[in-house]
Design a protein that fits this description.
The chain is an alpha+beta fold. The protein contains 22 helices and 26 strands. It binds ligand C2E and magnesium ion (2 copies).
């Protein structure tokens, strides 16, 4: 009944007993209410609101319930004060009341003791922190509630009494409520009496347990990978750097860094789903850890990438041997969700200080060696060479230059006509991206588009192409050219971008173009990767009524069953089936088969790379709807195209 405020009063209304809660309610000291008279009027068995006068002169209205009781064979009354009615605004008039109120309401646990370490004053926060009742506090000695004796409350009291002062002193593992171990911050000092002699100790404690927990968590997250518990990239770099710098001052022993990437992990992860994908990564990290010495450092440095620092390894050949061991261990099937999964890895090796004296360089070297192993089909080990470095550097230079290409106006578009076979007229153009770098000259899209894809630059660039092509089409419309269809190449990343559809809508609306005027060229590989999602994306685009084409058709192994489900308008027959030696048609049967297939599915066909009249003749015979190629026209600047459209001469050869 500690929390209930109750009083025992005699017939005259004199207080005989008061619960600690009642004492707190009246801001009275322990035992301070006994013998006092508050002039209650009471009717036993009834609930009533009564007004009680507080020491500071305020009147406080509380709900009470009065029961008949006994006190030494005399009639007495038990007045119970309803805890719910005790909430009240804080009013304090005199300085003493204010101080009492401050102590009572402080979120800090406050405890005052006498010289012997017995509690003389405490507040609600202290009761809560220590999990002791008011009775267990009053007059009791401070407990030894910490494994570190001198950090227990009693220990702190003794130290403070000896003259030590504490300001935000941190104690870990103090026993609190229901024996929970708490982290607390302590402020403590000795208090002297009016004559300057020690009278007791004032202790204030703040519970910082949850703050410490969050801090520890953040530290874990920053230094370690959550999924596998391995050190992360920053941690790996830090340790490698420390080792390299340490070595600078001592003997120059080689340091081997290994970068290991799982092959085709993205595809595996997609088919497994995220839960099993995570399991797989944990399994892989466990296998790697088991195959290394404890002195080696294994870290997870990317989604599907791991880094290893081999200590005490002298020769690149040792590194290769370790890499082979790791790859063999990974090659054993992993059983997940009832199926056997086979993973392979590509490994890159670099040796410091030869391949890099700083951690950053060494990691980059191992990285580019791994990239090379991947480029060559994966499932291999490759060590770093200066040529690799040069390639990587080139790529970096190009990538940096590309970053500024848009803002420096170095990008422009050329347009290649697409000619309708039956009408022998230009019906559309394909926008082809060009980059003229001030020093490096004209750079082929075939070399910078993949770079832009990998670095994410394709998103702003692709956005620019879409807008520029639509702007140009509108300009031709205004110049009175017959309405053309504009084909724009879309990269895989753009296609997957959730904002892409909005970009298309904006470009069309802004340039007053009907959606049918735009044709988006997609590639087979991006449609085949995750077909269900691809179908959804295609349908969202198709709902806009734009045309959709599959570029380079026939090279990406389209699944025929999916092809029928795709809302596609046009198949662009890849040039490799068209351009043969001496102007021959390279693969007539394929071209013919694609034309038949497309007709059966209700799609149109465009043949790309038409360079000779012979090719054109055969392609027309096989029923292809449109042709595009150097024989008819090369990609050209907009003005040139406008001239060509206005010229009375037919573009058809012969
Ligand atoms: P693509 O979309 O298949 O474009 C056709 C390529 O074939 C163009 O090369 C074009 O100039 C070339 N071509 C056309 N007719 C003939 C011919 O008769 N003979 C020969 N030998 N070649 C012909 P380009 O402009 O170098 O573009 C190469 C690739 O770069 C394009 O292949 C496309 O995949 C990509 N690309 C170009 N512009 C963009 C763009 O704006 N965005 C994206 N994502 N990719 C683009
Ligand atoms: Mg194209
Ligand atoms: Mg193509």
């Amino acid at each position: 009944m500690q929390s209930t405020a109750s009083l025992l009063v005699d017939k005259e209304g004199l207080i005989l007993q008061a619960s600690p809660a009642a004492e707190r309610l009246f801001f009275a000291e322990a035992g301070g209410l006994i013998g006092r008279h508050y002039g209650f009027s009471y009717r036993p068995g009834e609930a009533a609101d009564i007004e009680i006068l507080q020491p500071n002169g305020d009147r406080l209205t509380v709900a009470t319930h009065v029961h008949l009781a006994e006190w030494h064979d005399q009639v007495a009354y038990r007045v119970e004060i309803d805890p719910a009615s005790q909430a009240r605004p804080l009013v304090a008039k005199s300085g003493n009341d204010l101080l009492r109120a401050l102590v009572a309401y402080s979120p800090l646990a406050i405890i005052v003791t006498d010289l012997s370490g017995c509690v003389t004053l405490w507040n609600h926060a202290a009761v809560q922190l220590l999990g002791r009742s008011d009775v267990e506090m009053r007059g009791q000695k401070l407990p030894e509630n910490c494994a570190q004796e001198e950090d227990s409350l009693l220990g702190l009291f003794k130290r403070a009494l000896d003259g030590e002062t504490f300001q935000g002193y941190e104690v870990n593992g103090m026993q609190g409520e229901s024996d929970a171990l708490l982290d607390v911050e302590v402020w403590a000092t000795r208090m002297n009496n009016a004559r300057g002699l020690p009278a007791g100790v004032l202790l204030m404690l703040a519970d910082i347990t949850s703050r410490k927990k969050i801090e520890a968590h953040i530290r874990r997250v920053i230094g370690h990978d959550m999924l596998t518990g391995l050190p992360n990239r920053q941690q790996f770099r830090k340790q490698l750097q420390r080792l390299l710098h340490h070595k600078k001052h001592h003997e120059m022993m080689p340091v081997l860094v290994m970068q290991l990437g799982l092959d085709r992990f993205r595809a595996i992860n997609k088919s497994l789903g995220p839960y099993l994908g995570d399991q797989l990564l944990r399994d892989v990290s466990r296998r790697l850890a088991e195959s290394l010495y404890e002195t080696d450092l294994l870290a997870r440095t990317g989604g599907d990438e791991f880094s290893v620092l081999l200590r005490g390894t002298h020769h690149i050949q040792d590194g290769v041997r370790v890499a082979e061991r790791l790859r063999q261990r990974l090659a054993e099937p992993i059983v997940l969700g009832g199926q056997e999964i086979f993973v392979t890895a590509s490994v890159g090796l670099a040796v410091g200080p030869d391949d890099g004296a700083e951690a950053e360089d060494l990691i980059r070297a191992a990285d580019s060696a791994m990239a090379r192993a991947k480029e060559q089909g994966g499932d291999a080990c490759q060590y770093f060479t200066p040529e690799l470095d040069a390639q990587a550097r080139n790529r970096l230079v190009l990538e940096n230059a590309l970053r500024h290409a848009i803002e420096r106006n170095e990008l422009f578009l050329e347009y290649q006509p697409q000619v309708d076979v039956a009408r022998r007229r230009i019906v559309g153009v394909e926008a082809l991206l060009r980059w003229r770098h001030p020093d490096m000259g004209l750079i082929s899209p075939a070399s910078f588009i993949p770079l832009a894809e990998n670095s994410g630059l394709i998103e702003p660039i692709g956005h620019w192409v879409l807008n520029e092509a639509c702007r140009q089409l509108h300009q031709w419309d205004r110049a009175g050219l017959p309405p053309l269809r504009m084909a724009v190449n879309v990269s895989a990343r753009q296609f997957r971008d959730s904002k892409f559809r909005d970009h298309v809508v904006t470009a069309l609306t802004y340039n007053h173009l009907a959606p049918e005027r735009l044709e988006l060229e997609l590639t087979e590989s991006m449609l085949m990767r995750n077909t269900q999602e691809a179908i959804r994306m295609l349908e969202r685009l198709k709902a806009l009524r734009v045309h959709l084409a599959i570029d380079d058709f026939g090279t990406g192994f389209s699944s025929m069953s999916y092809l029928a489900e795709f809302p596609i308008d046009t198949l662009k027959i890849d040039q490799s089936f068209v351009r043969g030696p001496d102007g021959q048609l390279r693969n007539g049967p394929i071209v013919r088969a694609i034309c038949t297939l497309a007709a059966g599915l209700g799609m149109r066909t465009i043949a790309e790379g038409v360079e000779s009249p012979n090719q054109l003749g055969l392609i027309a015979k096989y029923g292809c709807d449109e042709v595009q190629g150097f024989l008819l026209a090369k990609p050209m600047l907009p003005d040139h195209l406008a001239d060509l459209m206005r010229s009375p001469e037919s573009i058809w050869p012969g």
